[in-house]
Automatic annotation (TrEMBL):
PANTHER family: 30S RIBOSOMAL PROTEIN S16, SMALL RIBOSOMAL SUBUNIT PROTEIN BS16M
Gene Ontology cellular-component terms listed: cytoplasm; small ribosomal subunit
Identification of the protein by name: Small ribosomal subunit protein bS16
Source species of the chain: Candidatus Jorgensenbacteria bacterium RIFCSPLOWO2_01_FULL_45_25b
Pfam families reported for this sequence: Ribosomal_S16
InterPro entries: Ribosomal_bS16, Ribosomal_bS16_dom_sf
GO-annotated molecular function: structural constituent of ribosome
SUPFAM superfamilies membership: Ribosomal protein S16
Family per record: Belongs to the bacterial ribosomal protein bS16 family.
Length: 97
């Protein structure tokens, strides 16, 4: 199954992200099918090829949660953002008095 995901590149403490299409379970240092954009988290800039994003989504590629939120922010897809933060494993139980 194909996925649109981030590939971290750059120097230590100065990384930037490439948006790639690759197999869901492939390593990030491995081969990618297509390179569709980049994002710089330090300067909050990005450039995404929206046509290629739409093409790969129609072919069945699913974006990861972080990529999905970036694509919504860039206007490449029309959807709601997804909560990416970790959810607590603890469930609060009411104490009996």
């Amino acid at each position: 199954m194909l996925a649109i995901k981030f590939k971290k590149t750059g120097k230590k403490h100065q990384h930037y992200l490439r948006l790639i299409v690759a197999e869901k379970k492939s390593k990030l240092t491995g081969r990618s099918v297509d390179d569709i954009g980049w994002a710089n988290p330090h300067e909050n800039t990005h450039e995404i090829n929206k046509e290629r994003v739409q093409y790969w989504i129609t072919k069945g590629a699913k974006p990861t949660e972080g990529v999905h939120n970036l694509l919504v922010k860039a206007g490449a897809i029309k959807a709601r953002k997804v909560a990416v933060h970790k959810k607590s494993k603890k469930t609060e139980t009411p104490k009996a008095e």
